[in-house]
Amino acid sequence: MPGLFGRLTSMAVVGGLALAAVPFEAAEAQWVFVARKALGRIHQMTEGQQGGRPGYDFATVILDAPADKVFSTALEAARRNTAVHILMQDPAVRRLQIAQGDRTATLNVVAFNDDVSQLMIAGHAGPGEGPTSSLVVGAVMRVCKEMNKHCEVGN
Asked: What range defines the domain where residue 92 resides?
């Protein structure tokens, strides 16, 4: 998966450099505009199986909620779900990893500011299992529903 993360890192660096060149007030206004357009829109991506490595499915959404609240909601939902097993939880960095059979998913929550955060879930299927895309999107939808946030799958 280094190729995907390398591309995402490069895009983040280029975006950060571009924002650094824009005056702060203009950058903040643009960020607010982009965030409002993106709130509740679930974006998904799939990286197919390559050279014997399993494929990964990703889903992400920006929510108008504090990151700690989003993480605690997701953690409580995982604890109540008897079909999954919590493999790891780290509230300090808002990261959670769960398993359901041979399928695993890692959930991260990133704070954009005090009231806006991004929920990201990456899922991966075990040998012989189908893709996890519907499962990771479903998990994002459940967190949205528990938080009484309207979320929908974007294009």
From this structure: 39-153
